[in-house]
Please model this.
Amino acid sequence: MAAYLGALDQGTTSTRFIIFDRAGRIVAQAQEEHEQIYPSPGWVEHDPEEIWRRTQAVIRQAMNEKILQPADLAAIGITNQRETTVLWNKTTGRALCNAIVWQDTRVQGMVAEFVNNGGIDRFREKTGLPLSTYFSALKIRWILENVRGAREQAEAGEALFGTMDTYLLWQLTGGTREGLHLTDVTNASRTQLMNLATLDWDEEILAAFRIPKQILPRITSSSEIYGEARIKVIAGVKIAAVLGDQHAALFGQTCFRPGEAKNTYGTGCFLLMNTGERAVPSSWGLLTTLGYKLGAKAAVYALEGSVAITGALVQWMRDNLGIIRNSGEIEALARTVRDSGGVYFVPAFSGLYAPYWKSDARGVIAGLTRFANKGHLARAVLEATAFQTREVVEAMEKDSKISLSSLRTDGGMVVNELLMQFQADILGIPVQRPVIKETTALGAAYAAGLAVGFYKGLEELRDNWSVDATWEPQMEEGQRADLYRQWKKAVTRSFAWVDA
Model:
């Protein structure tokens, strides 16, 4: 009998394949980074064919690490960077162009065009999303209008669209040989093309964006048996879950009850709160989105606060400035100083996401004096993540009418204890890190396990969750208020940097 579950975690900077046992413990894993392509200021691209090669490599490496056979896996779940947009030819399998990454801002002019003709919330009632460079719809439109032959292939039914889950599922299940073309409700909800009420593509919005429906994948639940893998190392294994990365983390953190929330600290920062079977509209700059959908059961909705740049700022310090050699050095450098020395870093590299939604904002460093050194800058980089999280938490509490008593955290940055302590200090509530930190991949594995009967139900998953560390707030309220007030002042300096 199969003893393990696999999770393919395709992220913004790398692709991983992780194998879990029934208790949610990691038994094998492999990871490979892929190239970040910056053709112009504000443009961010990935080579989808490179990601497919990396995907095959990490699956093979993880399976070989434990000398596993396909029969050892009960099922595989997929989780992915959301909104990143790929169009490819279904006959050749070749991408029409590089994938346009969720952070990319090239469609800013299109955003302005639609905002001027209906306002930023023109599609929010149906989709839960404001007009922004963030979501997939305008990225699709940009490709159709700017890549030679793209619209012609789309109109002829030769081109397929997908976010990375769709593209990889298609490849894994056969590709040009009848690969499955589908996505789940969580990823579909991030395109700005799906109606939250019907859980289907919205004809009116498709017409407004001039996107042909035939290029879109079929929308499914997040947990069901879609088909079987056809690549040799996992041939015949059922692929039984698809969730966008933040929804998978919500599921992996076992936030199954309304009011339960988690924050993922990765390339960006994403705080999601389960709102149950009701889509809660936001009045405070948050997104209304899908939490997950298990088979034929009712969909579970969520409120989300999305921050574009958090861990990516640490990478920027490493790759663009060379101040650190690897991301893990940021904490030691930040600990060389007592505080940020009055320095504030607002990383609006791709504009500001929640709760502002200002695509014309750009990054600023405020409060510099000759006293400031690289240690102060490193500390300001970490504190920027915590400040942005507080802004989202405040908006979420206003929308949900629920005050968080603690915050569950996950993602690559949660190993940074200085950040976790400052997060507790600036929020004024405890911050909890679970024993199993890879909750995004774990959520995909859990959802796949439910679909094939590997787990009996949600309570079995909840029993697996336990706390590894808790940080209690230690900062006085007066200091907390002063630091946050200065942060808010710094944020205003980033507004309207890009001329219309």
In short: The chain is about 35% helix and 20% strand. The first strand starts at residue 4 and ends at 10. The mean pLDDT is 93. The two ends are 61 Å apart (CA to CA).
